[in-house]
Design a protein that fits this description.
By secondary structure, this protein is of the alpha+beta class. It has a single domain, classed as Alpha-Beta Plaits. It contains three helices and four strands.
Length: 106
Protein backbone atom coordinates (compact mmCIF):
# COMPACT_ATOMS: atom_id res chain seq x y z
CA UNK A 1 0.00 0.00 0.00
CA UNK A 2 1.23 3.49 -0.82
CA UNK A 3 0.92 5.92 2.08
CA UNK A 4 -1.49 8.80 1.65
CA UNK A 5 0.72 11.69 2.73
CA UNK A 6 -0.22 15.37 3.03
CA UNK A 7 1.00 18.22 0.88
CA UNK A 8 4.74 18.72 1.60
CA UNK A 9 6.77 19.56 3.49
CA UNK A 10 6.89 16.55 5.79
CA UNK A 11 9.59 14.08 6.78
CA UNK A 12 10.50 10.54 5.75
CA UNK A 13 12.46 8.06 7.84
CA UNK A 14 14.01 5.47 5.52
CA UNK A 15 15.07 2.27 7.28
CA UNK A 16 17.00 -0.23 5.14
CA UNK A 17 18.15 -3.54 6.55
CA UNK A 18 19.82 -6.86 5.94
CA UNK A 19 18.41 -9.65 8.09
CA UNK A 20 20.09 -12.51 9.88
CA UNK A 21 18.76 -16.04 9.37
CA UNK A 22 16.87 -15.89 12.68
CA UNK A 23 13.13 -15.17 12.59
CA UNK A 24 12.59 -15.64 16.32
CA UNK A 25 9.52 -13.41 16.59
CA UNK A 26 10.52 -10.88 13.93
CA UNK A 27 7.20 -10.81 12.05
CA UNK A 28 5.23 -10.22 15.24
CA UNK A 29 7.61 -7.47 16.40
CA UNK A 30 7.47 -5.76 13.00
CA UNK A 31 3.67 -5.78 13.08
CA UNK A 32 3.69 -4.40 16.64
CA UNK A 33 6.04 -1.59 15.56
CA UNK A 34 3.78 -0.67 12.62
CA UNK A 35 0.73 -0.54 14.88
CA UNK A 36 2.53 1.39 17.61
CA UNK A 37 4.03 3.91 15.15
CA UNK A 38 0.57 4.57 13.74
CA UNK A 39 -0.57 5.65 17.22
CA UNK A 40 2.18 8.27 17.60
CA UNK A 41 1.48 11.98 17.25
CA UNK A 42 2.82 13.26 13.94
CA UNK A 43 2.72 9.86 12.19
CA UNK A 44 1.51 10.21 8.59
CA UNK A 45 1.93 6.73 7.06
CA UNK A 46 4.28 3.87 6.24
CA UNK A 47 5.40 1.78 3.27
CA UNK A 48 7.42 -1.41 3.58
CA UNK A 49 8.91 -4.06 1.30
CA UNK A 50 11.23 -6.97 1.99
CA UNK A 51 13.25 -9.11 -0.35
CA UNK A 52 16.99 -9.47 0.06
CA UNK A 53 17.04 -5.92 1.43
CA UNK A 54 14.23 -4.65 3.63
CA UNK A 55 13.04 -1.09 3.17
CA UNK A 56 10.55 0.63 5.43
CA UNK A 57 9.71 4.28 4.97
CA UNK A 58 7.67 6.03 7.62
CA UNK A 59 6.33 9.53 7.15
CA UNK A 60 6.15 12.16 9.89
CA UNK A 61 4.85 15.68 10.32
CA UNK A 62 8.04 17.01 11.90
CA UNK A 63 11.42 16.11 13.38
CA UNK A 64 10.10 16.27 16.94
CA UNK A 65 7.63 13.47 16.15
CA UNK A 66 10.49 11.39 14.73
CA UNK A 67 12.57 11.96 17.87
CA UNK A 68 9.63 11.03 20.10
CA UNK A 69 9.14 7.79 18.14
CA UNK A 70 12.87 7.00 18.35
CA UNK A 71 12.77 7.52 22.13
CA UNK A 72 9.50 5.59 22.70
CA UNK A 73 10.14 2.92 25.35
CA UNK A 74 8.67 -0.08 23.49
CA UNK A 75 10.35 0.98 20.24
CA UNK A 76 13.67 1.17 22.07
CA UNK A 77 13.30 -2.37 23.46
CA UNK A 78 12.45 -3.86 20.05
CA UNK A 79 15.20 -1.86 18.33
CA UNK A 80 17.77 -3.36 20.72
CA UNK A 81 16.37 -6.84 20.08
CA UNK A 82 16.80 -6.17 16.37
CA UNK A 83 20.46 -5.32 16.88
CA UNK A 84 21.04 -8.50 18.87
CA UNK A 85 18.93 -10.98 16.89
CA UNK A 86 17.37 -9.90 13.56
CA UNK A 87 19.73 -7.59 11.70
CA UNK A 88 23.16 -8.03 10.19
CA UNK A 89 23.19 -4.41 9.08
CA UNK A 90 20.77 -1.51 9.01
CA UNK A 91 20.82 2.14 8.16
CA UNK A 92 18.36 4.90 8.99
CA UNK A 93 18.06 8.05 6.92
CA UNK A 94 15.89 11.05 7.77
CA UNK A 95 14.83 13.25 4.87
CA UNK A 96 12.67 16.30 4.40
CA UNK A 97 10.14 15.76 1.62
CA UNK A 98 9.83 19.03 -0.25
CA UNK A 99 7.89 17.82 -3.26
CA UNK A 100 5.87 14.76 -4.20
CA UNK A 101 3.64 13.72 -7.08
CA UNK A 102 1.80 10.58 -8.04
CA UNK A 103 0.10 8.64 -10.78
CA UNK A 104 -2.65 6.07 -10.51
CA UNK A 105 -5.19 4.40 -12.76
CA UNK A 106 -8.75 3.94 -11.61
Amino acid sequence: MIANTPIPPYYAVIFTSLRTESDNGYAEAAQTMMELAAQQEGFLGVESARNQVGITISYWADQESIKNWRDHAEHTVIREKGRKIWYKHFKTRICKVERDYEFFKE
